[in-house]
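quick one: S-adenosylmethionine bound model?
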Amino acid sequence: MVLGKRSDYGDAKYAGVQVPFSDDIPKTVESYGLCGFDFVVAPLVRESWRPPAPAVLDNGALPSPLERSDCLYINSSQWANQVVGAVSDWIQPDAANPALRQRSVTALKTQLGWAAHLGLQAVVMPPPHAPGRCPNYAGVLNQALQSLTHMALWLTVPLVIPTPTPAHGADSGAAVSAVAGAGGLDGWEAWHQVRAQCDHHNLLGAALLVGPTLPSPASLKRWAGEPVKALLLPTAVFSANKRGYPVLPKAHQELVAAFFRLGVQVVITGEACHAVPPPAAAAAAAPGAKQVTPAPAAAAAVGPGGEPLGFTVTDPGESHPLRPYWEYLCFLFRRLEVVCEQERQEASYRDYLQVPLQPLQDNLESQTYETFEKDTQKYTLYEEAVFRALKDRQAAEAAAAGPRDPFDPANATDAPAASAASTSGRPVVLMVVGAGRGPLVRASMRAAARAGARLRVYAVEKNPNAVVHIQHMLRTEGWSDCVTLVSADMRHWQAPEPADILVSELLGSFGDNELSPECLDGAQRFLAPGGISIPQSYTSFLAPVTTHKLHHDVKAYKDLEHFETPYVVRLHRHYLLAPTQPLFTFVHPNTDAPIDNSRYDSLVFSRDPADGAAVLHGFAGYFECALYKDVLLSIHPPSHSVNMFSWFPIFFPLREPVYVPAGGEVGVQVWRCCAPHKVWYEWALSAPVAGPIHNVNGRSYWVGL
Ligand SMILES: C[S@@+](CC[C@H](N)C(=O)[O-])C[C@H]1O[C@@H](n2cnc3c(N)ncnc32)[C@H](O)[C@@H]1O
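yep, here:
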């Protein structure tokens, strides 16, 4: 049974269930599968299993610590896809009692060795028993991680850890934080301690244990940038609605929906799961699950409010007592906003690193232009900007020409504005510089038609291959008489006449990073005095970001060069530690003398103490561009142009993840450096700790002039 287009939100299976120890795991998988769940979380060994005392070796024999009947047993990769192992939760590698500590370490190593041998994809690890102080646990995990190749360890992390009583050995230094729920400790701190000691290993993920009390929404957002693999949702946090169906409180519903959007799967856990017999017997036996009315046989499945879920329950699992929980997850999943076409297109680019284009140094391929041209919203904004500029010119010329004769039919309000296009009678000279395959020429022609303006257009393009497309366009669209095609670099071309309007789109994800300033400085020679540049200005923005996935992907290259490269990336699983701030602004035409496009600035971002500590992996960059007056083109989140997808944000990585304490500051210094043949950025952290300057002298990354 499929829940929906899961691929829209990630490829992971989405709903699992914790089961008791089973001798016959294929049967368990099958029975819970019939009930709807995609996978089970099963103990690796019986609850009663303890590691045997070290054996006296006889004649080199190596006795196995596990008997066949002690442990989860699978022998097929088919089951490995549907079983997540669970390590015994009596294990306490940091117990004060040395015997328990030693036994725990042995048991942990034995169970992880067994799980790896079975080829499981993941294993759920018990929570740190002493949050914030479990060095031995972290040490064993770290050792295990060194030898794992694909099996992931999901550390159980309670979102809120109950404050330990003195009997549990709590002492004053524990990570108490305002972000934890009432009277608890911040689970994020416990997680960070372990993963930092494991050097942010990519096979270590978090399985968040959701309790009845949730931390504040602002502090929960930190998890968006972390490697959360599952939400553990105990049946105890559900309550029964008046129809007897299990439902979640509103805050929990929002939490589950937010994690579904990030592609995180949910595991139903708790006593109820343990008390449930296999389905064959379930119909006869009273369910251990509380307050649940099993769904009627062969009925249309309904959500908790009685609304149809869009499928009919006919399989044998429908009477399973956990079935209503699965149906409730379906209901939450289906309630997610419908994914729009743009999101669907972008889904495969999520959190995928791309090196920025260099349209000045390189010649773009036809397919790249084709992708640009799909973004109709971008061209609509340019059309509007050109239209407004033409109208303003018409108004200015009309004002300069003096009062109009109201009896002159040419001045009637509904007369074609063409007659007023230029009171001087000459067409407006509009130059599209960097015309590509011609879409901005087309947008300008549409604007002129709307404004009733006569245009003389020059389409200037330095890519000789793109020019061929414009030649074709001029023929097919009948513009040969008013559009002149110029195959040249705008910085060196000698224009035959001054331009009234200079239209360009040379912007990168960080605004100036594709060298729009350098190109337009070269082209403004032929802009008439008082002429208009579209765009008029652009500003880059930065924000500190948590993004475990991207940091890991950069680190995987195992070299400095990749840590000193900014990437274009559709940020998905990420968290901004503070609101964005403006960085560099460029204005066109540039009236500075002499012109200097190098820049330096430092920014300080302050974290709200209530949001808790967080980890910093780098900086997310965006731009906002004033095409003409208030016609904005923006990928800056607060002003992002609706339905525009030409640019993804940019990511500046830091070599090492940095802990930012609650209420702490993040300081960054950024340089835009210019040399005769290249432009590059350098960046460095100044707070909470000073860090090395990245990309010194453009040694790893630069943009060619
Ligand atoms: C980002 S593309 C935009 C293309 C097109 N205007 C569009 O919107 O689809 C930038 C274009 O500017 C061209 N370009 C970049 N620098 C240039 C220069 N100095 N002179 C002429 N063309 C340039 C590139 O070859 C490329 O076709």
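The chain has 18 helices and 30 strands.
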